[in-house]
Amino acid sequence: MFATHSRITNFTRGIADDVSSRVYLLAFAILFIAGHGLAGAIEPPSEANGPKDTTTPESPLAGAARLVKAYPEFLARMNGSNVLVWKDGTETAYDDGIPKADYQDVLDRASLKDQMSVEYPAGWPFVAPSKDFDPGRIRNGPFFLKMYGNSEAEVRKRLQAVQWATTSQKEGAVLFSSVNGAAAALERVGAEIAKLSPDARAYVANPIGTFSWRTIEGTRRLSPHSFGIAMDFQLPKGLTHYWKWESKESSQSGTYPAAVLEDQRLGQVVQAFEKHGFIWGGKWSHYDTMHFEFRPELFVREGRTNTE
After folding, report:
1. Which helix (H) or strand (E) holds 187?
2. Phi, psi at residue 258, to the nearest 5°?
3. CA gap 24, 118 in Å, rounded
4. Which domains does the chain have, with CATH numbers?
């Protein structure tokens, strides 16, 4: 009798254990499926689901890494996510952490993060820039002083004569910085321009300024011409525009000169400069259509520069 009772008890326990196991597995399956469904519901959209927002500033590491890649003559590496280490051992904060009151304050006290915060739209055609869209116009002054020279005399010692075709079809020499390969880049631009039609070449046959140690009009900020990395041209009639000449307020740009968007020869010239690391001031809302400036950090993409 006791043996029979024991067999019945064991059989009952086996059924109970089996039922418990099934219930446990069923509950686990429900939780697993629900969890995956929830994860899918809150997963952020990928780039494949929509265009990348190019107005959003890059992460500190991304922008700083582009600086290191663009200026290997001077910059060694990043130390953490906010410190740039120069090859001479000095360090510079990428983000200075100083709040800026307005756009003018950003221009006057730009950090390196501010300098890298607006993506330059290389290529042609392009659309008229929106208000205060000035890629490359935001500059951290101490950064350029450290590389190109902190006085007129120091910058002059590093200038190089670059041959440039003028309207007379003769070669004329312009002075440009040899630092960071800027002069060599300008020579490559000249070779690109020489391949264009005579009409297109004429657009940049009248250089009206390269090196000039001076501040930007109405500011205390040094012009990029002070470092020997900018070049201005007298463009054909109707294409030479500077926002301060056409603005009623000192800090507000005038109406963007839309005619420049339609000039294909100008587009060919702009692309020749951009190919070798030069930005064009005509892509700024505070436009300066005469102005080309060597800024290779604004062309670094995915670990390589546009000149490689």
Report:
1. helix 182-194
2. -60, -20
3. 55
4. 120-299 (3.30.1380)
Query: Rg for the chain (alpha carbons), in Å?
Result: 30
Residues 6+ apart with CB under 8 A from 277: 185, 294, 295, 296, 299, 305, 306, 307
- Give yes or no for a contact between 203 and 230, defined as CB atoms under 8 angstroms apart: no
pTM over 0.85: no
**Could you tell me if 44 and 51 are in contact, meaning their C-beta atoms sit under 8 angstroms apart?**
no
* Main-chain dihedrals φ then ψ at residue 17, nearest 5 degrees: -65, -40
pLDDT one-digit tens code per residue, 226-257: 999 999 999 999 999 999 887 656 556 678 99
How confident is the model over 48-72, as pLDDT tens digits? 322 333 444 556 668 999 999 999 9
Coil/strand/helix, residue 103: helix
3-state helix, strand, coil split of the chain in percent (to 5) is 45, 15, 40
What the block records as the tokens of 203 is 């657009």
User: Which residues are within 8 A (CB) of 71 and not within 5 positions of it... i.e. 6 or more apart?
Assistant: 147, 180, 296, 297
Query: Chain centroid to CA 135: how far?
Result: 7
Element (H, E) at 8: helix 2-42
Contact (CB, 8 A) for 67 and 297: yes
> Could you tell me the two tokens for 55?
């107005």
